UniProtKB/TrEMBL annotation:
Record keyword Hydrolase present: yes
Organism superkingdom: Bacteria
Descriptive protein name: Cellulase family glycosylhydrolase
Residues in coiled coil: none
Family: Belongs to the glycosyl hydrolase 5 (cellulase A) family.
Domain CBM6: 455-584
PROSITE patterns documented for this protein: CBM6
PANTHER family found in the cross-reference section: GLUCAN ENDO-1,6-BETA-GLUCOSIDASE B, PUTATIVE-RELATED
Amino acid sequence: MFRLIAIVFLNCTFLNGGLSQGFLRVNDKDIVNDDGPIIIRSIGTGNWMIQEGYMMQSTDAGINTHTQFRNKLNEAMGVERTNEFYDYWLQHHFTKADVDSMKAWGFNAVRPALHYKWLTLPIEEEETTNGTIRNTWLNKGFDMLDELVSWCEQNEMYVIFDMHGTPGGQGKNADISDYDSALPSLWESKDNQDKLIVLWKKIAERYKNNPWVGGYDIINEPNWNVDGTGNPNGCGCESNKAIWDLHQRLTEAIRAVDDKHIIFISGNCWGNNYNGFDNHILNGYDDNTVLTFHKYWNSNHQNAIQWAIDMREQYNMPLWMSESGENSNHWFAEAIELFEKNNIGWSWWPVKKSRLNNVLKVTTNDNYHELINSWKDGQTPLSADETYKAIMEYAMAHEIDNCTVAPDVIFAMSNGSNSTATQAYAQHSTGEWIQCVNYDLGKDGFAYHDALSENIHEGDNKWAKWNTGNYYRNDGVDIGKHGGDYYVGWTEAGEWLQYTIRVDEAGQYNLELISAAAIQGSLVSITVNGVEQASNIELPSTGAKENWHNSVITKLELLAGEQKVRIKFNSGGTDIKAFKLIKI
């Protein structure tokens, strides 16, 4: 099933995805390779090498960071079984099959989120000689990176290494970087900074001649009050001197062994506070450097990124939006359109997890939920054997052949530069039942309309669910599930759904619609190719949401060929499950 879907969606890949050749490098305000300017369209590997609590679904149990999760497993089932779990996780979570699929879906780069602990030891575990900390290198981690680079090379894709978890952790937002408040952070420890510097130098030495390594994203999302003013995450810092000094030291160490690869730098405040950089750059800065920024949960108007564009002009350096995601398909399409019309490449986060808004959806096993709940309430701990079974099944659920491919997410991302595009979700024909949840692919206003289709953290909509039922698709359309059937529910006046349907024979058709309404039915209208053919048709109250009723809307005129049929709610309240067009 997975392979079939991968092939089907080859027709909605990005333009020129994966056709690039040669080293990525900077040319004035552009990122280029041997073929000229390139838009980097990347996917982030998420919790493959660094586990964040929200992706592991453990935050409600108070387990937010990678190390907290591992320590909990050590406690619950022992070190040996925990090591076995991590060996399996690393081997199977992100594989060549994942990279092959990303290539097929149009991505031309992968941004692996790295944890330094797979590559070297924490300073607290290193031996010292005359006060100097030894640097122990862990071959397994470097072998993993070699393998990933090989997979990407075979697909003509770039790898951009993202240091997501630095020695000590780079942010008060501990979930992201595995920061432990009981130990010195990256910003509080010269030893941690020195370890990060020698680690990046080691990576650069290893890959300095590999053209499929796209560059080094040297510190992901710094968020620390390095100036001692403003909020704990560094958003109010004015000089950010500690941030820029470390970037300079890292750049010098990398350039001592590698002058070919791009260095991607990040400001404070989760990557977006570049205050003080103008003072820093006066001393001269590496000319193969790219400025990055991240974008989450704000609007997709031009003014949302104009600050970054102004910075690009000021410093004559390219931009890369190195992390975004965690929103609806509508938001994805509009964000990508915004980036690309401004000549900005991007990277999405993450490739897979147990939610709707990723290209690969993980179905969480029930006993893993039981495990997390047992950690949360603390009253009913699972046995070591039960813990082992649950965690290993959870690891297996992340294997690509066990994931659900999300065609709606792929379409939203692959058509971002043409965000008015729509496409049939499946092949629909007259005379057969069409599931209402299989409306066309595309964004709000083109494939459907819903009262809420994105999560913008403004006003009362912060953390709002665009899909109230939270099933099946990542659009604004609210989808529920009853028994084994999905349905469109929580309908409101003005909302509509579009279906592209193949009509073999022109003529008059009746539309049979299955609906349910607990209190009062809706009024609906039907349009065909933009022409209203049935107006204010009343759907019945059925007494309960699970009581389905068949209504017939008569005498629609359909031409032969591909027709676009819309069901519009003039008033809301009715759930709809399926419909069929029957020739009279």
